[in-house]
Amino acid sequence: MATHELPYIAAIEEAIREEMERDDSVLYFGQNIATHENDPFLKQFGGDRVRVTPISETAEIGMAVGTAIAGFRPVVELYMAEFMLVAMDQVVNEANRFHYMSKGQVKVPLVLKAGYGFTCGWAGQHTGTIYGMFTGVPGLKVVVPATAADAKGLMTAAIRDDNPVCYFHHYLLTLEHGDVPDGEHVVPLGRANVVREGADVTIVAIGWCLGKALAAAEQLAANGVEAEVIDPRTVAPLDTDTILASVAKTGRLVVVDQSTRHGSVAAVIAAEVADAGFGSLKAPVKLVTALDATVPYSEPMEAYLLPDEAKVADAVHQVLGNAPVAA
Amino acid sequence: MPPVQTEEGLELLRSMWRIRVFEERVGALARANEVHGLIHLSVGQEAVAVGVCGALRDDDAVYSNHRAHGHALAKGASPAKVLAELMGREGGLCRGLGGSMHLVDVEHGLLGATGVVGGNIPLALGSALAAKLGGSDAVAVVFFGDGAVQGGIFVESVNLATLWRLPVLLVCENNGFAEFTPRSAHTTVERVSDVVAPYGIARETVDGNDVVAVRDAFTRFLGAARAGEGPALLECLTHRLRGHYEGDPQRYREALAEEEWQRLDPILRLQRALAVEGGEFEAEAREEVEAAERLARASPFPPASLTAELAYA
User: Fold this and answer.
1) Distance of alpha carbon B224 from alpha carbon A289, whole angstroms
2) What residues of chain A lie within 8 A of the CB of B306, using their CB?
3) CATH no. for residue A121?
4) What is the spatial distance between Cα A121 and Cα A126, in angstroms, rounded to a whole number?
5) Are A160 and A198 within one domain?
6) Is A134 in the same domain as A205?
7) What is the tally of structural domains in chain A?
8) Which residues of B touch A (CB under 8 A)?
9) CA distance A148 to A151
10) Are A55 and A31 in contact (CB under 8 A)?
11) Nearest to B125 among A66, A103, A109 (CB)
12) Which of A100, A192, A210, B36 could be joined to A239 by an S-S link, Cβ 3.0–4.6 Å?
């Protein structure tokens, strides 16, 4: 397949631009977007479809929900995931409920694009890994792309989806380059990707953590341990079938998630495997997550809190019985 | 009360009686536990729903709130489908999945009632923007109470609506009580229409128990919005005859004296203005509501399979 190389963030923009070209009903709202007349989106699509909004997340998201109900497909640029929290009622109690509560009379095809996890000195209020707060919210879909190709394919799918989709992109991946398939590229929502095959242990890694897991897998392979690495890509609805099938094969599971442990998707995955795949397990499931703490400003403190390659490899050794299980 | 043509006046009267009788029957069914959820009745506030919705088309979007029954009926929803919804039946507007606070009737332009105070306001902005982008002269209307005005969502929405000159009409039903507390406990600003003054939005406070006054003021704003002149706020001073919800002991206020209510009641006022007796309209509404109840009772409860069927669009 022919590909082109793009930074992760450019892959996202390519998806939005192509969908706006393909479908006039796609709108683009956001604070501080289109701030000058040479903005490429504004130049190409005009001020009716590309709209800068005041710093009023509740009205901004609520207004977008209303345009979606009326048949448009708005994409809302939120920059920081935490800004969505300002408008929580609109996200988790309005947008997501209209389809179901109206017996399907209305649909809300909406994309809320939000960056997360910016752990490079942005301290406690702009670094949260908060997609876990939106999973388990009926009616919402939640995607967490880890590569440039998935960033494009998931954005395309999210815009075409008839449901509200929270699209969480990782700020530390912004300039990571990757090969993106040429032409139309759609990654179906709700389908995990087996990124690396292996028979000894399953590592499920979400978003930014995929890179940590793959690095750990390489290190483990050098010691004769073959890890299967799965990227869920969509965390709601979660592709538990792919994870369970892998655990049935390997019998061991490590889940890596930058979220705080008790608000993590990792905890949900562990619960699903305990519920439906317990018989396959040869060892306890290990979670490698952030600590249940606010992300600190200080650089070494940040690292202390977060999952990394060594913590993943250590967890794998524990489930393999090569190291004592941590309390 | 301004003059009104008899024909039109009788239609307004018929519509208000329909809501009054419907709401009173819902109250009785709630007490009998046949309508089983949280119910908010609009008895006493009929003139606002009728004065506003009577002027609208099916392609105009209406967003309502927790006190939605009157708005739905005035916008043209079938009483049988509304009642079936309140009774949790398959034949309800939303197949029993929404209930009293979440009535949706797309066919008649009722795009949604929402249960969180103020949560519906920006949704109407979206419908208004959609109409504008689509080149239509349709408008969006949102009903909210005086309690919603103290929320940030109200100010954010007024700001955005005026900034973008959206064809959205904000209709405040100021019944003096935000849930269980009087306006004086919420704010020092007496008039809701004054809250929006700095935005330069068209605004007016009217006697919300005078259906003709509501209709006239609303129709002026509606014409301007259709003509591209942007949003407006209509504050309707009205009275909620019943509690915040059915079963509310209302310890926070004294009941209106009967003669005082006789003076204020929007239905009696219109009858006096038209010099008609209400009997035949009340009887007609009773027949209609009884027929609606028969249809609602005949409808089964929805199947459990709906949960999965409608989980995602």
Assistant:
1) 57
2) 103
3) 3.40.50.970
4) 9
5) no
6) no
7) 2
8) 61, 93-95, 97-98, 102, 104-106, 111-112, 114, 116, 119, 121-131, 133, 140, 152-153, 156-157, 159-160, 163-164, 306, 310-313
9) 5
10) yes
11) A66
12) A192
Binned at pLDDT 50, 70 and 90, residue B4 comes out as confident
Tokens of B17: 């009686």
| Strand pairing category for A177-181 and A165-170 | unpaired
Is residue A114 a contact partner of residue A145, using CB atoms and an 8 Å limit? no
Domains of chain B: 6-244+266-296 (3.40.50.970)
Residue in B21, B22, B12 with CA at minimum distance from that of residue B49: B12
Pair (A127, A198) in one structural domain: no
User: Does residue A108 sit in the same domain as residue A38?
Assistant: yes
- Which tokens is B74 given? 């005035």
Overall average pLDDT of the A246-255 stretch: 98
Give CA–CA dist B176/B183, Å, rounded.
6
Contact between chains at A66 and B159 (C-beta distance less than 8 A): no
Residue A225 lies in a domain: yes
Whether residues A177 and A213 fall in one domain:
no
Are A159 and A251 members of one domain?
Answer: no
Nearest-angstrom CA–CA distance, A117 and A120 = 9
Q: Identify whether A294 is part of a domain.
A: yes
Model confidence over B93-140: pLDDT tens digits? 999 999 999 999 999 999 999 999 999 999 999 999 999 999 999 999
Give me the amino acid identity at A202. Answer: T
Cα–Cα distance for residue pair B286/B28, rounded to 1 Å? 13
Q: Please, how many CA atoms are within 13 Å of residue A247, restricted to the half-sphere of its CB?
A: 29
Amino acid letter, residue A272: E
CA atoms within 13 A on the CB side of B28: 9
The Cα A144–Cα A155 span in angstroms is 10
Range of the domain at A224: 193-319
